């Protein structure tokens, strides 16, 4: 199997990214799909696009997908279910609203709202994953569920908040092992590049092991049993 990654940018500003693991016969199709996604993007014309192919040499770790819900609950309500208070949520939201376009996720302490990763504008990128699913999700939703399933199922992770940085995509989600993947419509206004992925963790997390799990370990997400 092969890991395929794409990222594109404009004057070093993140425009788009994509990631999967596939078998050799599917590589050409995936490359074309990722090229189209990154090159022709509503966030703007690009001046850089990188496509990377790497053979996966380690066995894939299997992860169950989080259940998906369309309840359109509020972020505040969902956060309170996992004991994230308003102040910490506000801190997370400030990263989503700042002028930076992080290509990956930001890790925040659930105790004091401090940013714990040292990856600057890059953030932590969840990579080396695939989703073996019977469902016909669209690409965007399938990717988001796969990433959320990986992010949330590690010791010390409390929850994740995601807002797309695409100009016209206004559905985001809040995810945790207890709430599942909760889609939230109109999480932001149309026409804004504000967005990001915030991971809330407690102080039991082993950050080095977590980063290795998210960025290096090959992962296969499978459907949750009904
Ligand atoms: C993105 O790919 O821009 C993030 C989208 C997250 C929400 C996906 C959904 O459930 O609609
Ligand atoms: Mg995007």
Automatic annotation (TrEMBL):
<keyword id="KW-0460">Magnesium</keyword>
<dbReference type="InterPro" id="IPR005499">
    <property type="entry name" value="BioW"/>
</dbReference>
<keyword id="KW-0547">Nucleotide-binding</keyword>
<protein>
    <recommendedName>
        <fullName>6-carboxyhexanoate--CoA ligase</fullName>
        <ecNumber>6.2.1.14</ecNumber>
    </recommendedName>
</protein>
<keyword id="KW-0093">Biotin biosynthesis</keyword>
<comment type="pathway">
    <text>Metabolic intermediate metabolism; pimeloyl-CoA biosynthesis; pimeloyl-CoA from pimelate: step 1/1.</text>
</comment>
<keyword id="KW-0436">Ligase</keyword>
<keyword id="KW-0067">ATP-binding</keyword>
<dbReference type="Pfam" id="PF03744">
    <property type="entry name" value="BioW"/>
</dbReference>
<comment type="subunit">
    <text>Homodimer.</text>
</comment>
<dbReference type="GO" id="GO:0005524">
    <property type="term" value="F:ATP binding"/>
</dbReference>
<dbReference type="GO" id="GO:0009102">
    <property type="term" value="P:biotin biosynthetic process"/>
</dbReference>
<dbReference type="GO" id="GO:0042410">
    <property type="term" value="F:6-carboxyhexanoate-CoA ligase activity"/>
</dbReference>
